[in-house]
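Form P-L/3: holo structure prediction, ligand copper (II) ion.
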Amino acid sequence: RDMALLEGKKTRCWTFESELIKGNPESLQQLPDNYLGPIIKVRKDQKIRIRFTNNLPQKSIVHWHGMHVPEKYDGHPKDVISNGETYVYEYTVMNRAGTYWFHPHPHGDTGEQVYNGLAGLLLVSDEEESRLNLPVGEFDLPVVIQDRSFNHDNQLVYLDGGRMDKMMGFLGDRICINGRTDQQLNLKSGCSYRLRILNGSNSRFYKLAWSNGDPVTVIGIDGSILESPKKMPYVMLSVAKRIDIWLDLKNKKIGDELALVSHAFESGMGGMMDGGMMGGGMMGGSNTRLPLGSEYRLFTINLDEEGSNDYSLSETLVPFKKLDPANAVNQNNPREFNFFMDRMQWTINGRTWEGTEVVEEETVKLNTTEIWQLSNKGGKMMGGGGMMGGGGMMGQGNQGGNKDGGMGNMMQMPHPIHIHQVQFNILERDTSEMDASVWNSIKEGIINEGWQDTVLLMPGMKVRVIMEFKDFKGLFVYHCHNLEHEDMGMMRNFLIK
Ligand code: C2O
Ligand code: CU
Ligand code: CU
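OUTPUT (holo model):
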């Protein structure tokens, strides 16, 4: 579809064109003039059927991010369909109320397909949520944040920086909000809103804050509404994550100014990135205007109309009963998953994507609770493969390090780690091996509560998550949600048997 995103020539996007065949018309909402897919609204316990027909020039399959569904309907890369084919999803919604989303999941092309416009929100409601008197209708507002780059012809540009761009992850130089470039939301003074913020970017993440210094009031994260509202100076919003925030405009007047910004932070891309390689121009011309971790505005709220509503935020929201580590089959011996670079490849425990292959350490039992330890271990540029030899990747500006220790940390990047099929709880976050200034620049924006499906692993960070494998056996994936890392192979299967 050709969309009017900028002055002048229209931009060719890939979109989910949707049509409701049967059901409540309210369950499918298309916001005007934007490239995103429809907002699908479902209720817990509802049975849904979705027909996906692929009209792309590439293979694809749709994944329901955060949803607890059988293998067949999870959108595993092995289930891709070709142009002209149809895949039918049919499942009962088992998730808690929360903000979920959907996007393509073919191996190798996910980054490009999402970038070209293929993504949409899936909102689940349930009884517990309905009791809360949270804003609905126009006051329940989606905010999808993505970054894009456009060429002089107004067309989307993806990965023009070549291999290095791919290694780092795509960073655009312009923020799109809800599939539009205007970075404006028109809201009513005197009203309260629920903002459902999704970071639908390929690799960029944000340090969200209000421009006037007000705290950010978080009421939900990923697949859950929190136990009580959490007021934070800022919130780190990793790739693929969602947070629901409460916005009170009751005391605001027409014309008052307010913006959501991303504050500066240290991304922790250390080692070679600060030194010779990254600093010295390996990154080419990409993303020089909007570096990761710089300060910029996401959108402005225009208060051009007065209104009133009487939604209220209570101090207790949805009770949260954290999974008990005592019930985990591996309480004292968590499964370890290390994310690092080996021989110029992003890997998980040194392995890369291999179709439907799954190894013993990735095999879990149905009806068990497990603890997984996810660690960001930086990377080994030298590996054993001699990638550096003659290729010129090292340039000259690189001081290297010693073979044993130093090299191991030369390629460090944040990795937003996502596990399909489950919502997990965060048990602990070990930051002792992190660079202190990186941690200090983000730590007040971290949320460990609630049911989550993606966790941002900053370099050196270790996170223990606990989850239950229930209802469905099958092959699912876990991966880095930096879509370029995922496409490069930082994705693996796990088997529930
Ligand atoms: Cu949102 Cu496997 O992805
Ligand atoms: Cu997912
Ligand atoms: Cu990654």
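COMMENT: The chain has three domains: 2-126, 137-306, 325-496.
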